[in-house]
Each structure stands twice: as structure tokens, then as C-alpha cells.
Amino acid sequence: MSKIDPSIALDVHANEAACPFTEPRARAAHKGHFGHIMVVGGHVGMAGAARMAGEAALRVGAGRVTLAVHPESRLLAGAGCPELMVHGIAHPDVLDAAFDPMSLLLVGPGLGQDDWSEAMWRQALHSGKPMVLDADGLNWLARHQKQHLPAGFVGTPHPGEAARLLSCQVADIEHNRPAALHALIQTFGGVWVLKGERTLIGDGSQHLMNTTGNPGMATAGMGDVLTGVIGGLWAQGLSPWDAARCGVFGHGRAADAVAAELGERGMLATDLLPWLRRWVNGKTT
């Protein structure tokens, strides 16, 4: 039976999030002030997902980003972005010590669904670190729903992932998206971003509908970039709630700027990166 009660009506308001940073950085600022993020993912053939999440986090201002990827993905994951630190992880149990200096984790971009993937996912959750769960990070959660989640986490499912998490059909999610958001919050706690047309953001007390974005975003990698944006904002001191709502808004705002300049068709996830940098610095997009 579906966990979604279509009679639930949530108070959903438009998300008009301004740039989250209004003051210049202190002159004495250094990279340690702006967080150290680890992206856990990047299985064979999916190095780009981890790479995009990591670069997006840097472009919105994170101080440092490390990618923990499959050994066969190590060279590809860092190619073209030398600012990313990349580690090929053959045995996930070595991650225990690596997690210690991290501000938060981004778990799932390109993670995959085999034994290596599950071991990486379990090690990440056992760390107790704050995290953003996306993609296969959510698919593993759907398989192991009794797994303990950290006190601070943000989940970013698309409708298919939400359906797996709630043991229902995608049509159930789309029939009443506010109710689906409510069910995710009630089942798992945390902050949830239900992606799609008019993305919804909610936690136990607040629920918003995003107003930015366009159909050009219907392309591979957009979710990975969003994960990086949310993580990058969170690492700089925003709350999980503010990082999620501002990240969704800024992500859609950047895509709208790309569409206004070049059109919707042919938009790539990485096209958003220069515009995200403008937005996070308070520039008009």
C-alpha cells in the first residue's frame, strides 16, 4: 500500500531565495573557513557525476573538495579540474580515517549498485557526518530503510527515487507531490528536495515551492550539479534548510540565465557553473 495520503495538503509557498551571501569575505579568510567536502561516488563509467558535484561545490565557494571514487575512475574524475583532490578507493574501509577532517559528505553521484558501491555507502553513513544523499545514495537507502541516518542530512530525489523510497509508483508521487514530500519527511526526517517541475523543498516545519528553472534542465548531470551546489553552500555555514532552498533557487536561476542567452535545447549541466558563480557573488544573472 502506498505511504502517500492524497488528502494531505501542505502549505507550499514560492521560494524567492536571494543570494545567501551579502557581505564580502573577510580579507584574512582562508580555505579552511569554507569547508572541506568529500564526494562519495564515481564508479566505473560514472566519474563525471562525482566530478560535476565536486566542481559545482567549488564554484559556489566551498574551500576544498575531495572525490572518493573507484580506482578505475581516479584519472577521469580529476581531469580538467586540478583543484579537485581525487582518491581511488579500492577498499572502502580505508575511508574511516579520511572522513575525520571532512565538513560534510555528498553521497551518491555515480556511486553505482554493486558490492563496492554498497560498502562505500555504508562507510559514509557510519561516519555520522552531515551529508547530502542523491542518486544511488538514495537507491541504497530505499533498500536499507532501517539504516541510521545522521542528524543532519539533505535528500534530493527525483520522482523515480522518491517512489522507491516510499514503496509506491512514480504516478503516485506525481499525483500529489506535496504529499510525497510530506511522506519523505515523516519517514526519514531531515530536509528533502523533491525534484521536478516546481521543485519542492521541506523539513518538519517548512515547505517551499521553487520558482526557477526550465525544461532545458532535463539532461544528464543536472542533479549532480545541484548536489554540489547544496553541499557547497552548506559547507560555508548555511543551515541544511537554507543550503537546500537557496541551492535549488540558484541552480534554477543559473539554468534560466543559460536559456535566456542560448536557448533551452542543448543545455548541459556544466553550462550552469559560470552562472552559479555569478549568482553566489550577488551578480545579476
List the SSEs and their pairings.
Elements: E1 13-15, E2 36-40, H1 47-59, E3 64-69, H2 74-78, E4 85-88, H3 95-99, E5 104-107, H4 115-126, E6 131-133, H5 136-143, E7 153-155, H6 159-166, H7 170-175, H8 177-188, E8 191-194, E9 200-202, E10 207-210, H9 222-235, H10 240-262, H11 273-280
Parallel strand pairs: 1-10, 2-3, 2-5, 3-4, 5-6, 6-7, 7-8
Antiparallel strand pairs: 8-9, 9-10
Helix pairs in contact: 1-9, 5-6, 9-10, 10-11
Quickly give the structural class.
alpha/beta
Which parts are unreliable, with pLDDT below 50 for 5 consecutive residues or more? none
Shape: globular
Please report the total strand number as a whole number. Answer: 10
Strand portion, in percent? 5-15%
Compute the CA-based radius of gyration.
18 Å
Question: Strands across the major sheet, in which order?
Answer: 1-10-9-8-7-6-5-2-3-4
Q: What is the quaternary state of this protein?
A: single chain
Fraction in helix: 40-55%
Q: Mean of residue pLDDT?
A: 94
Number of DSSP helical runs: 11
| Helix and strand sequence | EEHEHEHEHEHEHHHEEEHHH
Largest sheet: 10 strands, mixed
Question: Terminal Cα separation, in Å?
Answer: 45 Å
Keywords: ATP-binding, Lyase, NAD, NADP, Nucleotide-binding
Protein name: ADP-dependent (S)-NAD(P)H-hydrate dehydratase
Domain YjeF C-terminal: 14-283
Subunit structure: Homotetramer.
